[in-house]
Amino acid sequence: MSHVIDQRHPAGRHGVGRTTGSRIRQRGLAAAAGLLAVVAAAALASAPASATAAATPTPYLPKPTGAQPVGTTSLYLKDTSRPDPWVPTVKFRELMVSLWYPAKAPGRHRARYMTPKESELLLKNGKITSLPADVLSRTRTNAFTDARPAGRKHALPLVVLSPGHSKPRAELTSLAEDLASRGYVVAAVDHTYENVATTFPDGRVTTCVTCEIDKNPAWWEQLGRSRALDVSFVLDQLTGSRPKWKGARLIDPSRIAMAGHSVGGASAIPAMLKDSRIRAGVDVDGTTDAPIPGSGLSRPFLFLGRQSAYTPGSGEAAATWERDWKQLTGWKRWLLVTGAEHMSFTDLGLLTDQLGIDDGADIAGARAMEITRRYVAAFLDQHLRGKPQPLLDEPSARYPEVLHCTVETKTCR
């Protein structure tokens, strides 16, 4: 099976694999994808293709809550110091990275959410055939392509985002746009061959080699270590002596954090263990695999996840957080969102709502995203900007869905 599509040659094979793994771990979202497919098919199967396309709403991302316009650009990075971990015949590691940043003024062209081919392959991965193949590529964003960056030299904190396994970096766009509007530089990484579709500047589209690999805990730990290497390389390229982005002078290299969803969030721990430049980490709904050594990890860390999976004492997923909790020796919080499902913390929860697909969540996608944005921003403001955030210390009447857990007593309120 081919794992590179050359869009200049339509006859190329479109190799796409599906993630395997236990239902408890919920890494590849196979169960959720199946549910989406069933519900979407039931809702739209009777409509002709032309009518379905006409009736499909234009998806959109919520407006950022910060005061500044948002610019965005993409970077192609090539690490010649190591071969690709999943395709050893490729003698170097290639990465695509999206950057979002505060801009001096809105630009003329809103950024594209993803390409039509990426939309097609993502829907195909979820077995969703009842929507136009390019529908996600039409998603309206709030950032402007290559808008002029705003800020003083070495003044802006940097946040690296890592998506879930098989998912594109685009799934974290709502969070990235919001953080950029609040004065952060945000870098979202596509981990090549771990995603159903990554498009490179020369037209190639790599697909998901790792989706076809049988998974076990040791493999997930290997994946986390690989992502840690990717993140360190991205930091080198953004904060080194010859940065790859013209606006890199704005970044304060002493204020860097990492956040991610699913295995992208879990990977924050091995990334922090490997790279002391990462001063704080956020795991959003990701079962962890890389044990923290006995010496512990003293930098700030936030767990944010579903009540149904991560209530202390409730099962395998929560047990991984409990193991790590004991070794987190600095500031830490364990927050849960009632009614959320795995996708609720990403754009996919928003977009499925807008497209009439039930993802099983009891909380609206827009509300879940509001919570995700608010709590991640509060964590970053406190630990990268030194601004105390009472929101992180106790339950809030404004966000009654968010529970604060005391792990030692296995209680959440």
Tally of DSSP helical segments: 11
- Please tell me how large the radius of gyration is: 20 Å
Helix percent band: 25-40%
With strands numbered from the N-terminus, the spatial order across the biggest sheet is 4-2-3-6-5-9-10-11-12-13-14
- Unreliable segments of 5+ consecutive residues: 6-52
Please report which band the strand proportion falls in: under 5%, 5-15%, 15-25%, 25-35%, 35-45% or over 45%.
15-25%
Beta strands, count: 14
Structural class: alpha/beta
**Strand/helix succession:** EHHEEHEEHEEEHEHHEEHHEHHEE
Q: Let me know the average pLDDT.
A: 90
Shape assignment: globular
Distance between the termini: 49 Å
Question: Sheet with the most strands?
Answer: 11 strands, mixed
Structural description of this entry:
This protein is α/β, with parallel strands linked by helices and 413 residues long. Helix content is 29%, strand content 19%. The protein has helices spanning 30-44, 49-55, 116-125, 173-181, 217-239, 263-266, 268-274, 307-310, 316-327, 347-354, 365-384; strands at residues 4-6, 70-79, 93-102, 144-145, 156-162, 185-190, 198-199, 204-206, 251-261, 278-284, 301-306, 332-337, 402-406, 411-412. α5 (217-239) packs across α7 and α10 (347-354) packs antiparallel against α11 (365-384). Mean pLDDT is 90; it is low at 6-52.
